[in-house]
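Query form — protein Autotransporter domain-containing protein

QUESTION: What is the three-dimensional structure of this chain?
INPUT:
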Amino acid sequence: MSNSGIFELLSSQQPSTVNTYVQNSNGVLALQADSTSSYGQLNVAGNASLNGRTVVITRGSTSFADGDELVDVVTASNITGSPSAVLDDSLRYQFIQVQTGSSYSLKIAETKLTTVNNAITNTSQNTSLVSVGTVVDNIINNNNTSSQNCTGALASTVCAITSSFNASQVHKNVVQLAPLMDGSMTYIEMNNLRAFGDIVNSRQESVRGQGYTNEFNPEKYLWIRPVGRWDNQSNRGDYAGYNADTRGIAIGADGLILDKTRLGLALGMSRTDVNDTSDDIRHDARVDSWNILAYGGYDFTPDTAVTWQTGFGRNNTTGNRYLNIENPTDGSTAYNGVAHSDYDSDTFQAGIGLQSTFHPMDDVMLTPELRTDYYRVKDKGYQETGAEDVGLKVGGVTTEALVVSSKLKAGIKLSEIVDVHGYVGRVTIQRTIVAKPRRHLLAQRTRRLPIMV
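ANSWER: The structure tokens for Autotransporter domain-containing protein are given below.
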């Protein structure tokens, strides 16, 4: 008999008997094992050649103890070769090959691992990973047919996880199942939203003669500004860091509609390229954004004014998660693929600020300012493509931030045409609220299970 696919040895049957057995490098010997007295066996009358892999299917059995042995899984007149790895569906046990010239057996070692969730909890503070671990546990417990023989994207991935012999190996594969940029995309979008609001706020300050530079000309009604930002977020514990490069343009127009009232409208367009900085995952993404803001202000006195702004926008995010799931027993690739994401986000922002200028000396100005800004990013749900049944189905999520900030600006008049301005200090209090999304790990012939992050 020649095996280049899957040869199953069921525990409910008498030992299978063949004259010869040749298992090539693509072959799998799938052994069902319920206990040391009930497991599949193969008796070969002649010679046996063992290559490929062995898969042990315990179906959640806990009837084994450390040091137990599945004796004579394969017997033959002469055995050559040896499977490159032993995979299994049990996180609790490892199966170690014991081979002689005429017998192939498996010795059992306990890993001290109970669930994927516990393994991740003990090695990580990342709640996304803990949630993914819970889903993998549910898939293991469901023990569907596709996962038993470790075939297919999801089944191979789960089998690689359950074949781990320590928590670190579990973590290495589970971390790759977390969502795009480890859930940081919303905060990248939020930063872009705040940056556009700051540009408009700078324009509002400048038309009152309180800007820090001559970037804007107060005598003109139209303004334009190139946008460039380079954000670098380092890893935060077990949360992946990222680099985000933004470039774009902001344009606007404003003017006095009454003696003390100014109104304006601004449009911003930008593109942000994001790459992770983690050693554990490889992700990249692109965010295309546009925002429109109505803004204005009212001067109570020449030195005291209130300013406001409000508007909305839309983001389109495309991303890639590069998956490279490894079998811990031999380092081979269990699954390699790319999960593609494409989704839209709606944004909203509103803010109000109060500032007043004091003149402690003729040529010195002090301007305290108090601002309150509200931001909201509403990501729509999406389903990843390109990664077979390892892709994520992600529900929508809404993130809100309320930012209260105060700052003190100081200015010195050097001449009739030259003023120097700068910050003396700034204090910001921020409250961010995230409505948790639902994420599903897709599985063929497996109930879709939610990941709460």
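ADDITIONAL NOTE: The first helix runs from residue 116 to 123.
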